[in-house]
């Protein structure tokens, strides 16, 4: 009965937002919310997915596929594709919407976000996790208004994380974690309305400030809560915040694809609500640097250091519009991460009066199996 559903109802199937990764002559496609197991498909199925945009019924899809490939699909073949997509949560339908709503409701009812990488990337118990995260003692220590740190796998990059976190002096009452969007994100920015569970306890959000943000921008800022479920750019920073400053409260946010005009508007407002906390505040930009090589669509890997260093120097000086424009004008050829996140990070630090930053560490991770390179760095921006 399920196989015949789309024919019986005469629906125009629409594929849900998805990610695609080339694997030889096949493609690994997965729901862009991070849900489901994903599918390994060939080019024909990938074409069918692009044709399923909600504007075509099944007869139209078959006709367009025939025009583009010269192959006539049987009804059974098309049903099998639809069935596989539905099971992998790759169709925009009532089933997917129900699952998304259920996840969001569970998060809100629970009051905190469960970790998705505990026990895999980092230990689940507090003592083991602390031993895993903490590096050698760094001196001299200093107060900072902002830090730029990786969200690279902690097993690879924890020394670079610690170059920033390990030198921060004292405690902080309020921490802003600015992450990037690795999953489908409807709105230009979002905020997480609940705390985050860590091995060191629940990192609580600063409700009073979140309420002011909602009053200013509207309830839509909470509508991308599902995007946080597996978002490591938020989760990894939450570990350090709760471990180092147990009493701190946090504002977790994702900057996905905002315009510069809107980011300036957000920075203006956040400066107003954050200025009373300036002496007890740190802003974290959770970003990686370049992504080059076969894994990311290049013919082969290469050294992205020159591009990285030019961008890092602009960010170090808080020339955030120039850093953003540099990536824009070069089509971000090395795929530097977090261009929107760093724009808002720079805009906010500039308004709050941060001093110029210092580059603490820069490294490259080489994945020989895929002939790919990911670079990452940490910077500190002292209180002026």
UniProtKB/TrEMBL annotation:
Family in the record: Belongs to the MEMO1 family.
Protein name: AmmeMemoRadiSam system protein B
Pfam families found in the cross-reference section: Memo
Protein source organism: Thermocrinis albus (strain DSM 14484 / JCM 11386 / HI 11/12)
């Amino acid at each position: 009965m399920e196989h015949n559903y789309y024919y019986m109802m005469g629906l125009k199937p629409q594929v849900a937002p998805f990610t695609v990764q080339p694997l030889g002559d096949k493609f690994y496609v997965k729901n862009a919310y991070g849900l489901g197991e994903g599918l390994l498909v060939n080019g024909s199925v990938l074409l069918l997915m692009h044709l399923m945009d909600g504007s075509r019924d099944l007869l139209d899809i078959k006709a367009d596929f025939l025009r583009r490939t010269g192959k006539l699909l049987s009804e059974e073949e098309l049903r099998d594709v639809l069935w596989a997509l539905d099971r992998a949560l790759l169709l925009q339908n009532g089933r997917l919407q129900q699952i998304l709503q259920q996840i969001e409701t569970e998060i809100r009812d629970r009051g905190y976000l469960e970790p998705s990488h505990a026990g895999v990337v980092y230990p689940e118990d507090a003592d083991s996790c602390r031993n895993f995260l903490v590096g050698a003692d760094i001196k001299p220590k200093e107060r900072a208004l902002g830090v730029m740190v990786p969200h690279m796998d902690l097993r690879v990059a924890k020394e670079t994380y610690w170059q920033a976190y390990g030198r921060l002096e004292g405690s902080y009452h309020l921490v802003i974690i600015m992450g990037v969007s690795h999953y489908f994100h409807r709105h230009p920015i979002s905020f997480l309305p609940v705390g985050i569970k860590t091995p060191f306890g629940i990192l609580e959000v600063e409700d009073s400030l979140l309420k002011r943000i909602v009053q200013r921008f509207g309830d839509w800022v909470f509508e991308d809560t599902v995007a946080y479920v597996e978002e490591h750019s938020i989760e990894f920073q939450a570990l350090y915040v709760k471990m180092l400053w147990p009493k701190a409260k946090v504002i977790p946010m994702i900057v996905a694809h905002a315009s510069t005009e809107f980011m300036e508007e957000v920075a203006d407002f956040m400066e107003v609500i954050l200025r009373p906390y300036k002496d007890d505040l740190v802003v974290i930009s959770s970003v990686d640097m370049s992504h080059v090589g076969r894994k990311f669509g290049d013919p082969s890997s290469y050294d992205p250091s020159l591009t990285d260093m030019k961008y890092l120097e602009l960010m170090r000086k808080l020339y955030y519009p120039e850093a953003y424009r540099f990536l824009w004008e070069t089509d971000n050829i090395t795929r530097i991460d977090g261009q929107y996140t760093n724009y808002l990070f720079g805009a906010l630090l500039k308004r709050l009066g941060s001093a110029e930053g210092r580059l603490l560490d820069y490294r490259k991770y080489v994945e020989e199996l895929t002939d790919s390179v990911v670079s990452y760095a940490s910077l500190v921006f002292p209180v002026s």
